[in-house]
Amino acid sequence: MNELLEKIKVYYPKADLEVVKRAYEFAENAHKDHVRLSGDPYFTHPLAVANILAELEQDHLTIAAALLHDVIEDAEVSPEELVAIFGEEVARMVEGVTKLSQFSFYSREERQAENFRKMFVAMGEDFRIIIIKLADRLHNMQTLQFLSPAKQKEISLETREIFAPLAHRLGMWRLKWQLEDLAFSFLEPKEYENIKQKVVVSRGEREAYIAGFTEKLKELLGQMKIQAEVNGRAKHFYSIYRKMTDQNLEFEDVYDLVAVRVIMESIRDCYAILGMVHAAWAPIPGRFRDYIAVPKSNGYQSLHTTILGPDGKPVEIQIRTRNASRGGIRHCRPLAI
Ligand code: AMP
Ligand code: MG
Q: How far is the CA of 256 from the centre of ligand 2 (A)?
């Protein structure tokens, strides 16, 4: 319990930890006779979900609701009892998550709008219900090996087709790629292993590399007195796989395994930064695209280049204005709700 409480204190010093403590004790007791398919005490699950949410820096009531999220369904606790002990707000979240788990989500594309509608109706009640549901799904995916192969496939497909797109739309990028990579490992295990072996370096190492590169880039921007935001990401396995299959590429032809984006206000600065980047690191021939001068058909405008970064590793760099980055959100079909 202390580990969880300490984690919350770091990002939310004023959190009411009493309610988290009570939820912890209540849920642990309510689930004391249940076990997971892994053989672990059932309470390890809500506790893991609460920890995922603490890592996402959610508020104390969300964490309390996460600890309690299965007590109505699996321990026959009544909603009224939850209201009496934890108050309306927590009780409503727990009820919301319980209701969502009773829906069946269709995995066929044409049912997508209906699935999203259900989710957004729940979200209309309280946005945090969906966040708990996504964290719940992530932990279930992390422990999916204990289910039958048929169940593994079914749940992974639902994760890929419904929960990952939802995380994407909510801008919860970390959740999204974790869900997609786990689903990938169960749905196409051979391809997953293949890509994993080719990437070689761990995610942690790739993230550290990006952090170092970003720092250097920011230093150069500082010298040019240009205000810009820099962010980077390590491409996840499923995205690498999709790019290879969609564009019929070999692994070696995927140049954006590590990539950064520089966002600033003026177009003139974009070109100034490009010049600076090419002076600092050698560009890879044939990898430069000027989508500012020649926008993509959807209006997307950005400069793309790939350079050889520290240790001779290719790094993709996208340089764009804030306006372009608002217009350029990908994979977002309009919602039919
Ligand atoms: P991808 O794997 O290329 O589909 O990208 C996954 C996520 O990373 C999306 O949210 C992209 O917006 C983001 N992303 C893609 N390229 C870059 C980049 N060069 N720098 C920073 N983020 C990126
Ligand atoms: Mg990309």
A: 6
